[in-house]
Amino acid sequence: MANSPTRFRVRRLARGASAVLAAMGLALAAGSAQASAAGQSVFTEQKCDTCHAVPAVGIEAKVKSAKMQGPDLPTGSLSQEIERLTRVVQQEEQTNGKKHPKKFTGSDEELAALFSWLSQLDAEPAPGASAE
Ligand code: HEC
Question: pTM to 2 decimals?
């Protein structure tokens, strides 16, 4: 998949949050299964799982201190807030006057894959989760 035309277009488009959204659309069109797998590896490679659990796929937060942990992801409203959250995880925007504790250091493509994966999970309730 590394040199596929879609990846090339994604790279050229990937500039800022709105481009991240455009890239996500392309990633989804290219095949959601591939996008999912890529997003999950970005999540663990970027060590997001230090502080965040992803219950839908059985990822547990590595830190046990509740003070350090972030919310379980996705939060249920994540897919409505992707633009803001991409800025938050790049420490370009604060939440309630605080920076997100970790800065995302990967590429724009990786960020797009990550949020594409999380928003897909957001759309599907976690197994065993009760419908609200
Ligand atoms: C050192 C611990 C830590 C790491 C590592 C970490 N986070 Fe967080 N994260 C938090 C905390 C604490 C919050 C809640 C406070 C905040 O929103 O800034 C949070 C909030 C978030 C939110 C907002 C949830 C919401 O809707 O309010 C998202 C999305 C998120 N993190 C994604 C990530 C991603 C993606 C990574 C990996 C690049 C990551 N986090 C790495 C601790 C962490």
Answer: 0.77
